[in-house]
Amino acid sequence: MAWSTREVAELAGTSLRAVRHYHEVGLLPEPERRANGYKQYTVAHLLRLLRITRLAELGFSLTQISAMGEDDDHPAEALRTLDAELAATIERLQRVRAELDVILRDATPTDLPPGFVPADADARLSDADRALVVVMTRVLGPVGLRAYADLLQEPAPDGPAGPEFDDLPPDADEPTRRDLAERLAHHLRALYVDHPDLAHPHTDAPGGAAFAAQTVGRAIRELYNPAQIDVMRRADALLRAGDDPAAPGPARSGAAR
């Protein structure tokens, strides 16, 4: 008995398009044709088609199925490999679900590492501060990231340069810049005592300290206006000129105000 293409596809629980594709990629041998030109599929074709569809349902790619050949023996090694891949996928999906749960529950940002910025800290960061933190997470190493994460986990400090710095106009006058820089330097000096790793955040950067510093510096130049950058530079100079053993750089980030 022979079946048509439609009949063999229905028996195998697949589609005409799939059967034709399996012919095209060499997975399913072409059957003989009747005198009228119609294909006639045999039991051997049906069994091969059932094997292909079953392996595809299990998660094997057509390339992997092709590599197995037409041997109907139990593909134990391939199945073990697939099982390991599926286990890794399940673990990754479970981790993603756990992260999604935190994001949904705490309304935390999606572009930052899980738990890096708590919801209350994200709410008090300006857009520029938040963007700078995102950039830092891409270039800092574990020590630098942990230092900023620990700082952000703390309650909002009574820093001297929060909204005042955020609202600083590009043409702020000299006395305003000087006064703000002095207060910022004083505040940062205290932060470096409590969080010494903030003074050297680039030490263990994966791409090297120079690359991390250049990347963060470029982000600062693009995210903040000239007056804000000037205040940061002045604060940094004040810290370097003092007796403070730390040599911070950059002097300010949104996490350190």
Automatic annotation (TrEMBL):
<feature type="region of interest" description="Disordered">
    <location>
        <begin position="154"/>
        <end position="175"/>
    </location>
</feature>
<dbReference type="InterPro" id="IPR000551">
    <property type="entry name" value="MerR-type_HTH_dom"/>
</dbReference>
<protein>
    <submittedName>
        <fullName>MerR family transcriptional regulator</fullName>
    </submittedName>
</protein>
<dbReference type="Pfam" id="PF13411">
    <property type="entry name" value="MerR_1"/>
</dbReference>
<dbReference type="InterPro" id="IPR047057">
    <property type="entry name" value="MerR_fam"/>
</dbReference>
<feature type="domain" description="HTH merR-type">
    <location>
        <begin position="2"/>
        <end position="71"/>
    </location>
</feature>
<feature type="compositionally biased region" description="Acidic residues">
    <location>
        <begin position="164"/>
        <end position="173"/>
    </location>
</feature>
